[in-house]
Amino acid sequence: MNLRHKFLLLLALTAAAPALVTGLLIRRDMEDRLAQALTEQHLRTAHGEAQHVALYVRAVAERLAEPLSVPDALPREAPAAEAWLTARYAHQERLQRVGLFDAQGRLTAALSPGAPQEAEDFQRRTQALLASAPTGRPYLFSEPYLTAVHLRPAVLVAGRAPSGQGPSLVAELSLEELSHRLSTTSQAGSRLFLLDGAGRLLLDGSAGGGGPPAPLQAASFTRQAGTFHYEEGGRPWLAAFSPVPELGWTAVAARPREAAFPSLGGLNPATPWLLALVVTGGLALALFTFRSMGQSLAQLAQGARQLAQGNLQHRIALGRKDELGDLADAFNEMGRSLESAHRQLVHVNGQLLAQVEEQTRDLRQTQEQLLRSQRLVAVGDLAAGMAHEMNTPLSVITANLQLLLAESPEDSPERPMLSAAHRQALRMAEIIRELRALEARQRGEMAPVDLHPVVERAVEARIQELDTAGVHVVCRFHAGQALVLGDGKALDDVFHRLLGNALSAMEGRPERRITLATHVIGRQAVRVELSDTGRGIPREHLDRLFNPFFTTKQQWSDKGLSLAVCHRVIEVHGGKISIQSDEGVGTTVTIELPMAPAAQRTAG
Predict the structure, then answer these.
(1) Among 122, 140, 174, where does a domain finish?
(2) Which of 188, 278, 321, 328 is deepest in the core (most CB within 10 A)?
């Protein structure tokens, strides 16, 4: 028997109007409290979606502004800047294109795949955004728009230098991920959507949903959270809206009112003469009925308060088969939905935190590479001065020592000292040549170079040393060419030096093998790996291997400049070099160089 029939029976059995009025007042008060709690929770849903949208856009803005806070972190030359943009942002699927703009709003480098028309539209919109932006703001956001060709929802996000006078990093952020989230988060029969600053529909999480209702369009200009009721398709709806921080958008959660507040049924008036039949029995039945209903409504109100306080695991167990039981079931279903949405939000927050930590590590590595590059540039400047000041007098000293050795008898007591002095003079000359080579790596003619012949020439140049030392060389090349844009002679010298280091590391080792492998990474870069079975490098030395004059070798003739020269050459080519090593196992040197443009077109 449902609640409607119970009240009809009660009215048929009693004329106790005061008891009926009291029960109705209690019921109305509990309904109002429950409606208020459910409305507040509905508003929480809209606020949570608004916060997620703001976090989604702001995370991109912070990633763009992060390198601008570090002086000289961005490459100045266009090829290097484009390579830097590719390495940092190419894997970000939500970023459709990224551009580096100077202080005057001119495009200096871009990562802009896709149709040329969309790239032009991106540049035009960015210049308009930068031109109209107020000074002193580290982040800028454009009005949302549809891309020129594919008509995808997007927004421009810009990171600016702290002073407001330097370059700007601007990205076109796709909003399709937000649209997918709204679709997956929306419950059956409900709607989650976003409005732009003008009250227009931006994203709609429901399939085939119409435009936003007119009252909500007006409410979006208030920039405050709130709720209101409206009708759509002949059905009353409850909508909760919350502004998205910094963007001027509005997040809206709408649900049919009958789904948000399941009906408790109504009370029909009863005929007075029927109530007069059994007054005594009616009073007893009224007391029992109202007590049972009051307890159930109290449980519902307590559950709503628990939900409003953040206890999303709370459930209501009435054990009733009437409308109050339906209301409890609907309440529990809403709690499960909110708990699921909360778990998703926590998961997304965790992902964003991991991305921030990864970006921090990338920034730290970039700073270390910048410091290492500055040290190499300083050594290059020192090399130019030393070559000019010391080369000529050292040549005179070496020539005079050679003349004295030639004129000195074999049994002369001075001859050992002259020989030692001559060897040291030759060593000084070799150090000056290494320093001049390090400085000279800053220049060179760049042209498409196939790395396979370069590696083969380096092996052939040292083949006699390798055979004498009993070293087995294995080459595993990628099929076809491995074209990069570079200086062939400089790259020859890099692999010649690396083979020499590997050869030295395998002295006295039972297994002596060098493996050379090449890989093409997508259409972006070529990777070369040189592995040996040498004695390995202590872990505490790995961070210092590319420092000038640092060496782990014991020979007096080693000058500690070979890896510094290699690092400088690879850096000038816009590439990266890294070393992994295990003591007693061996060492692997990995080089990544940007693929030549011609090779990229062929691969495409």
Answers:
(1) 174
(2) 328
Strands (E), 29-116: 95-101, 107-111
The reported pLDDT for the residue numbered 434 is: 66
Measured distance CA(560)–CA(564) in Å, rounded: 8
What are the strands of the beta sheet with 201-204, ordered from one edge? 201-204, 191-195, 250-256, 235-243, 226-232
Confidence (pLDDT) at 318: 72
CA 78/CA 86 separation, integer angstroms: 12
The DSSP-derived string for 187-248 is PTT-EEEEE-TTS-EEEE-STT--PPPHHHHHHGGG-S-EEEEEEETTEEEEEEEEEPTTT-
Residue 28 scores a pLDDT above 50:
yes
Q: How many independent structural domains does the chain possess?
A: 2
By CB neighbour count within 10 A (0-12 exposed, 13-18 middle, 19+ buried), where does 114 fall? middle
| 3-state secondary structure at position 269 | coil
Helices 279-308 and 3-13, packing angle to 10 deg: 150
Amino acid identity, position 147: T
Q: How far apart are the first and last CA of the chain?
A: 72
What's the per-residue H, E or C state across 461-512? HCHHHHHHHCCEEEEECCCCCCEEEECHHHHHHHHHHHHHHHHHHCCCCCCC
Q: Is residue 293 part of a domain?
A: no
478 lies in some domain? yes
Q: Compute the half-sphere exposure of residue 239: CA atoms within 13 Å on the CB side of its CA.
A: 25
Instruction: Encode pLDDT of 116-161 as tens digits.
Output: 888 889 889 998 888 887 877 888 888 899 888 888 899 999 988 7
* CATH number for 572: 3.30.565.10
- Alpha carbon distances (Å) from 568 to 104, 376, 429, 573: 32, 7, 21, 9
Q: Could you read off the pLDDT of 250-283 as tens digits, one per residue?
A: 888 888 877 766 544 443 444 444 445 555 666 5
* CATH classification of the domain holding 89: 3.30.450.20
Rounded to an integer, the average pLDDT of 359-374 is 75
Domain boundary among 147, 174, 201: 174
Nearest to 86 by CA among 550, 515, 575: 575
416 belongs to a structural domain: no
User: How far apart, in whole angstroms, are the C-alpha atoms of residue 432 and residue 321?
Assistant: 94
Tally of CA atoms within 13 A in the half-sphere of 208 that contains its CB: 2
Q: Does the residue 169 lie in any domain?
A: yes
Q: How far apart are CA 447 and CA 599, in angstroms?
A: 12
Q: What whole-number distance in Å separates Cα of residue 4 and Cα of residue 10?
A: 10
Q: CA quadruple 335, 341, 347, 352: dihedral positive or negative? A: negative
Sign of CA pseudo-dihedral 67, 69, 70, 71: positive
DSSP string, 518-540: EEEETTTEEEEEEEE-S----GG
DSSP label of 596:
P
Domain ranges, residue 78: 66-174
